[in-house]
Amino acid sequence: MRKTKPDKTVVERAVAQFLSNLLARNASPHTVRAYTGDLANFSAYAGSRDWPSLDHIAIRGFLSHLYEKGLGKASVARSLAAVRSLYHWLAQEGVVEQNPAALVSTPKLPKTLPRVPTIEEMNGVLDGRMPEAASFPERDLLMLELLYGCGIRNSELTGINLDDIRLSSEAILIRGKGKKERYVPFGDSVRAALAAYLPARQPVLAGSRKATRALMINQRGGRLTTRSVGRIIKNIAVAKGLSPDVHPHTLRHAFGTHMLEEGADLRSIQEMLGHERLSTTQRYTQLSMKHVLEVYDQTHPRAK
Q1: What are the pLDDT tens digits along the chain (304 aa)?
Q2: From 56, 249, 283, 291, active-site residue
């Protein structure tokens, strides 16, 4: 006798509809994947309860349940954000009247950024020859120049097409989170790296008999993946004497920190990084405070 699947609970049905709505709105695959996992946990915790019984106290209970399972503050905060988004959508659909998750405070997260390479360390990586670990030196140098020189995300790097590059205005069209577009300026180092890479890219494409609009390609002529970028950056970083913890996002952090240290204003950095909120960019100020204090100690007459 075949077992019949149990009917979905009220929460499970709502979560499935909410995720379908996210997909229809072209939410990023990363967001959908994160929400799917977080809301599956919430559905399991809610069980057969209906919306009136899932008040803010129940949601606090859900967060406690996640802590008991060993989840850290960042994961719990992300789960709460997912539940808030679910309730926000339910309110828009007229299923609930208010968002009880809004009454639950977000876990306080330590505002820390990973240690970034110094300006001297980055110059050492970019100005010297590419190590033997670089299987496609021209491409790998351009990759480093774009991640550090433009402060773009890994996914933004792999998404660049040839026709996104505006050589005359020295800017690149970048597609960021939520399909938002912005122009990011580039300097002489990126221009030189492009001039070396583009002629080297042609034989690879010709040999693979592939045609692609992608700027960054692998040695089979396909678009480079974010996973490959992460692996290549780590290999080069280690070969150049940097920490094995260096990954593409470390170079983005280095871009923001070094720009701030060199006197750029937060608003400009915010624009270039594609941050929606200035508060996200302000996280870089704590890193550069060390630099400010060093300058004070060295230069202020009252500090001597």
Answers
A1: 455 556 889 999 999 999 999 888 877 777 888 899 999 999 999 999 999 999 999 999 999 999 999 888 888 989 999 999 999 999 989 998 888 988 998 888 665 556 788 888 898 888 878 888 888 999 999 999 999 989 999 999 999 999 999 998 888 999 988 778 888 888 889 999 999 999 999 999 888 888 899 999 999 999 999 999 999 999 998 898 888 889 999 998 888 888 887 777 777 888 888 887 777 767 666 555 555 555 555 655 554 4
A2: 249
Q: Is 223 strand, coil or helix?
A: strand
Q: Can you read off the two tokens belonging to residue 54? A: 């899932």
- The verdict on whether 25 is a catalytic residue reads no
Does the active-site annotation cover 56? no
Q: Which of 73, 177, 191, 223 is catalytic?
A: 177
**Catalytic annotation present for 300:** no
Count the alpha carbons within 13 Å of 182 in the hemisphere toward its beta carbon.
21
Q: Which two tokens stand for residue 134?
A: 């670089």
The DSSP string of 144-195 is HHHHHHH---HHHHHT-BGGGEETTTTEEEEE-GGG-EEEEE--HHHHHHHH
Specify which residues 165 forms β-bridges with: 172
